[in-house]
Specification:
This protein has 17 helices and 34 strands. The chain is α/β, with parallel strands linked by helices.
Length: 575
Amino acid sequence: MHRVLATLILVLAVLCGPGAPQAFDLTLLHVNDSHSYLDPTTDKIRPQGKETYAKLGGWARLTTLVDKARAERANVLLLHAGDAVQGDLYFLKYGGRPEMEFLDRLGFAAMTLGNHEFDKGPDFLANMLGYAELPVLSANMDASEVPALASRVKPYIVATVGGEKIGIIGLTIRDTGVISAPGKVAFSEEAQAADLYVRELQARGVNKIVLLTHVGFGVDKMLAAKVHGVDVIVGGHSHTLLGGQDGIGAMGLNPAAPYPAVVKGADGGDVYVVTAWKWGRVLGRLDLTFDDEGRVTRAESRPELVLGDTFRRKDAGGRKVEVLGADREALLAAIDENPETVAAAPDAGARKFLGPFAQGVEAMRTEVIGRAVLPLPHIRVPGVTDSGERLPHGSLLAPLVCRSMLDKLGATGSPADIALMNGGGVRISIPEGDITVGTVFSMMPFNNTLFVLKLTGKEVRTALETGVARGGGAFPYVGGLRFAADMNQPEGSRVHAVEVLGREGSWQSLVPHRTYSVVTNSYLASGGDGYEVLKRATDRYDTGFVDSLVFLDFVKRKRTLRPLPSTGVTYIPGH
């Protein structure tokens, strides 16, 4: 008996002694593409199959959830995967100050630079980063020509958490030079930079390595398979929603893949790839356990769709009314039971911090940004407006929105050939007179971002046929293109005389098999209003530019707006 007891004591001494393997637990929290949306944003979800309007995200609620996670877990790293700015009015008003200060306030361990951080140039970015003290990363950025930025941004950091060293390498999409305005700042190939600094970290004895990237979900998976020594990739840029069909998917949203996505790495082990949608609507959470060799032995996913606790649904008359009583309680119970959703109360301190900034943003809505020298009436389908005005060629306002979309893409160095939007994307007309910030946000209230799709001429024609057939809010308005629609013809054969404005300024017939670059809004790109042909496009990217802010910038640059010489639409109504 004593011999057995002595043996057990010896075994325990070996297992628990100084040289014994020790498990290390780490919780990664992360957001990406928050785009200055410090307040909650409204969107439709479908809990229990019922269309419901909910408030999503908001940094006061994120604060509550981050504090809760830190209370639950000893070793927590909070990371931001880029595009913290350029979206909501906070950036337009304050130039990134509240966003940067909030990063410090919430205790982010690091942030990687996204392409939109460069939208106002590298000097502006360097000054903006002065509002924050957190480490800012980009391993594939060469800012040697901009010393103020080069001195502020590092390729990686080594964070010490619970006595363990965690290497965090930042990467920025190499196309930033053509989709933003980095000036003399250059970007190298992402995998090569990652490989270089992984080896440098390993030489320093760091065996737990995270890539913090702003390159898009597809590139993240490529990096996971290609770069040796990586354990986790925390990504951004593509606004990809990850989650389970019984979790986030049960809210009527469509996750692109499970959270985390698991990729077989270059070393033969699993690499965990995570990203957290957009606008602070999801707080990503990955609970990890590492062994002594730095291998992940456990990865537990806990992403949280961040919801408020008030909701609206349409009544029988189509009006949005608040959900109350038993219906509200059932809705809150469904959220509570869902493993990937949470109804969080806003943190009082965070709301107090944001208050003065929010007041300034609200006051900004009355700011005059331009003037309409003639009325700019809007109608969804060419015809006669409710006030009796004849618009046989359709809206005079929607084509200007399309022009603003083309101008924005042209300014990035990656111009689009065609702009396409739906008539329902514009909600009001603009009368003659002053145009305010509030006017623009009333006109385009949906926070759609601009997507660029590669479509064949045949697919462009299909999109136009879809829009004219569905009519109403789906009716297509265009830029860089003109077409005729005869509603007396059979469905599928109504659109004709389709021409594209060439780069040299001449009109050319749409070529069925030629590929065109088409900029549209995120609603249509996701198949909204029946535009399934746009949803099926595989060559696409989300620019992150918000349509209302793109139009707002257009008005500020033009100062005066008047109707274009042509709407691009010739319309023959059905008999």
